[in-house]
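Thread: quick sanity check before group meeting

JM: Hey all, I'm pulling together slides for Thursday and realized we never actually wrote out the predicted structure for the chain we discussed last week. Dropping the sequence here so it's in one place. If anyone has concerns about the input, flag it before I start.
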Amino acid sequence: MPNIIDAQGNVVRDVQTPAIFEADYSAKAHTIFRAVYRELANPRAGTASTKKRDEVAGGGRKPWKQKGTGRARQGSNRSPQWRHGGVVFGPQPRSYVSDLNKKERRLAFVAALSDRFKNGAITVLDASGFNLTKTAEFAKLIFGGTKEAKVGPSTLVVVGYDEQAGDAIARVAGNLKKVAVTHSGALDVKDVLRYERIIFTAAAYDVLTTAYAANGEAK
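JM (edit): ok, ran it. Output follows.
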């Protein structure tokens, strides 16, 4: 179960891990893969485009006569072997959208987060009295010091969507290369897997436990 720490780094108490994250999801690796693939593929624009030989302007006249020149026969100077010619099997505009139903997306998120809970990579920060204004102070809070922050584990801080301390946390964490800040509504599978440690504010953790109730049903 994760610890709750205050703005000074002191452990206040432990909190219970939601029951849904204590189940065994070791057989769901492929579902996680599909979810991450979808999250990476869907934002792709798919606008890369090349012209085939029949789409390149010009090339209507035969470069030279068929016989008698000693050179290889050519029908158009827009053939692929010519400079400024068409492209063979080049990229065409396409959609990279990959579909995954809501049940599978939810399962992948729960499975990924469950792994973080089981490995003790989840911490809860009580940000109600958060008054840190310097990056060094925040580095000391979550890493133990500024030197440790350079070699410490990559960390994702998850704040509540409208949390008052959210802007302050984002400001003091901005210069820490190994720290990123997001809000509870934007947290996804690839973020859970990308970072070695996740720190939820108490408000963000409440959102998580409310969304995934003890019986495993999303509200």
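AS: nice. The longest helix spans residues 102-118. Residues 21 and 117 are 7 Å apart (CA to CA).
JM: adding both to the slides.
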